[in-house]
Structure formats: structure tokens, C-alpha cells
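Field reference: sequence -> structure
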Amino acid sequence: MSILIENCCKTFRSVPVLKNVSLQIDDHEIVVLMGPSGCGKTTLIRCLCDLETPDSGRIMIHGKTLFDQQKTQDKALLKQIHQEVGLVFQNYQLFPHRTVLQNLCDAVLYQRLLSRDEAHKKALALLSQLQLLEKADVYPSELSGGQKQRVAIARACMLKPRILCFDEPTSALDQASIQQLFPILQRLRESMAVLIITHDQEFGKQIATRTILMKEINAVS
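Structure field:
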């Protein structure tokens, strides 16, 4: 089991966004969570990635406790959990002043997880797999939307996550770039679980091994 979420609740300014949400995701699944804007999809994924803290409930990541009525205070454990969960943001959040290669390497070098040579070797291998090797030394402003997304995927994979989350991955892509995304996601699931939130029903149904409607797991949807 990759993810276990039990009875998670989250309220913003007295407005409930998540109410008793429970979800389980197993290794090698592509789970697509669908629903309209404002139904809590992004809040749920941010809680899973420790960018938001639930008010109550429980979140387990590969058997490690991220939250159980309160956030774990074990810094070493938090570091392990953060490395196991990757997130590809809707707007990619690439550093505009850093090259593609630097965008990939900065986090692992800052955390001293790899030497510079090891980081460069791994980054170049990922870029090659995603057909972006020739873009290693360019800046994000020189990339198309689909290329930026693939760079963001490669950056997330630098930490070898066991779960990779996508926030609205098709929202800024043309149809050709969306089609390029399908084989990438299928390859990713060979080594991890994939969680996608989207309101693009056609894309979701085509790529998912399991589709979940947010209103089915969230009492306030």
C-alpha cells in the first residue's frame, strides 16, 4: 500500500473543505481523482504532500505516519516521507533563472543526497528518457508547455519518489502534448503509484487504472 488516508478533515475560515475523506492507493496504480473546481481535490493532495496540515484524521505513506490527529514531530521521519512523495504542480514551478539541468539537480544537492557528478548523471539520464536531453542547458522560458511539464516530472523523479502526484496535468497542454503524457505516466507506474487530480474526464478515464469522484469520498463535495 502506498497511501492510506482515513477520515481526514480540513476547514478554512470555518468553511469545511474536506470532511471525513478516506482513500487508499496501492503500488503501481494510476488513481485519477475527478471533480469540479472547489470540491477539495487540491486541498487533499496538498495534505498528502505536507503542504497543508489536516485538522483531524490520519495519513500514512508506505507505512510511515505523516499525520495522526497531529503532524509527526520526528524530523528524520518527515524527511523520509517528503522524499517518497513527489508533486508536479499545475504551473510546474520551475526556477526561471536556473537551467533545466540546474532545476533538476538543486534539491538533491541542497539536501546532500548525491554528489554533483552523481546528480548530473542521474538528471541527464532522466532527461534522455523524457526526450529532453538537448534542453539540459536552456532556461524554462525557452520551453513549450509540454516540455516544461516533462522537466517538472524529471525533477520530481530525482528523489526517487514512491508516489507521484499531479495537479491538473492537462490544463495548460495542447492535444499533442496530452498524447505525449500517456506513455510517460504508464512508465512511471512501473516503479511507483500515481495520483492525478483533474476535471478532464476524457483524459482521466483513458489513463486511470481506477477513477474516483471526489463527491464519493468527501461529504462536503
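Note: The longest helix spans residues 116-129.
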